[in-house]
Amino acid sequence: MGELEQGRGGLRRLIYASRYAGGGDFGEVVRTIVNASIQNNRLVDVTGFLLAGEGRFLQWLEGPSAGVEETFARIGKDPRHDGVVTIADGRVDRRRFRDWNMAQHRLGVLDRPLLSEIGLEHFDPTGLDAARAEHLLVEVGERHLRGG
């Protein structure tokens, strides 16, 4: 099946933000989430990118509508996520992160100029609009892809 039409419901992209609810080392939790996501996302043909830092998450999910819905429902029930906020949700013509069942990046000092560029002093993505969230995810994702 072509990338432009991914089963019933078409191709969907959902971006959400959440806070880490605590209960362990944040870095270890991120690794655990990514490893489980890679396996789970393969089963429902979902790809995407996760930014994590300062106890917060910003994630881009994309794939068949039913797969994205199933994945997001699982995240909503995950006790490690708190304050889940949907930033963008809708149909798209193509995948942005098609080669990654789930890639991730832990934000650090080198990311501060990009955070500043979108108006964040600290990584708190819950107040971002769709355009700024997309910009942040795409910029960091492309840098991640280049190995930088």
Description:
The protein is an alpha+beta fold and 148 residues long. The protein has one domain: Alpha-Beta Plaits (2-Layer Sandwich). It is built from four helices and five strands. It has a five-stranded mixed β-sheet, with helices on both faces. It is globular and about 40 Å long. The model is unreliable at 1-6 (pLDDT under 50).
Rg: 14 Å
Largest sheet properties: 5 strands, mixed
Low-confidence stretches: 1-6
What are the secondary-structure elements, in order, as H or E?
EHEEHEEHH
> What is the CATH architecture term?
2-Layer Sandwich
* CATH fold-level topology: Alpha-Beta Plaits
Q: Which class of secondary structure composition applies to the elements?
A: alpha+beta
Q: Which labels suit this protein?
A:
5-stranded mixed beta sheet, 4 helices, alpha+beta, 148 residues, Alpha-Beta Plaits
What does the secondary structure layout of this molecule look like, with pairings?
Elements: E1 11-20, H1 26-44, E2 47-53, E3 56-64, H2 65-77, E4 81-91, E5 103-106, H3 112-117, H4 130-145
Parallel strand pairs: 2-5
Antiparallel strand pairs: 1-3, 1-4, 2-3
In short:
The protein has helices spanning 26-44, 65-77, 112-117, 130-145, and strands spanning 11-20, 47-53, 56-64, 81-91, 103-106. With 148 residues, it is α+β, with helices and mostly antiparallel strands.
